[in-house]
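for the writeup, i need someone to sanity check this before i put it in the appendix. the sequnce is what the collaborator sent (i think, or maybe the updated version? ugh). structure was predicted straight from it, no edits. if anything looks off just tell me and ill rerun, i have time this weekend
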Amino acid sequence: NVFTDQTQTIRFSYPKELSVTPSDAELTTSWRTNTQTFGRTLAKVVLPKTSQPNTNLSDSWVTVGTSSDPQASKDCLVPTNGERAKGVVTINGVVFNRITLTDAGMSQYYDTTSYHALRNGHCYVIEYTIHSVSIGVYSPDQGIKEFDTKKVVDILEGIVQSVVFLK
C-alpha cells in the first residue's frame, strides 16, 4: 500500500496488513519522540503486538513529523536529552542525521531510531519506536518468547526507506 499525506508533502509504502493514521491539523509535541517543541504528525503506521504473537513485543510504530518551530529547527540535527548520533544516511536523495534513543522503566523498553532532516526551514523526522516488555516479567509456563527484533526492524526500516518528499 502507498500513503500520501494530506499536505502532499511525503509519500511512503507500507505492508498491507498495517494501518496508517493520517495527520490532523493539531500542533502537538508527539510529532517526534523526546521533544518539547510543537509540530505536526503527518502520518503514523502501527505494527501491532499481533504481528509477533506470544512474544514480549508490546507494539511498534513509525511516525513522520514536521515542525517549523525555530527551536525544533535549531535542535533538528543534533542529539538532545540522552539521544545518540549514529551517522548520516541518505533516503531517496535526502540526507538525514540518524539519531537513536533508548528509554526504559517498569520493565518496559522503548528503542527509537530517528532520521532528522532540515528542508525549507522545517525539521522533518521519520522515526520508529519498538516497545517491548522484559521477558523476565513472564512466567515460563506462559510460553512467551523474545520477539524477532530483525523481522520487526526490517518492516519498520522498509517503511522509513520508502519515504519520498514530494515538495
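The two ends are 21 Å apart (CA to CA). Helices lie at 70-75, 149-161.
thx in advance!!
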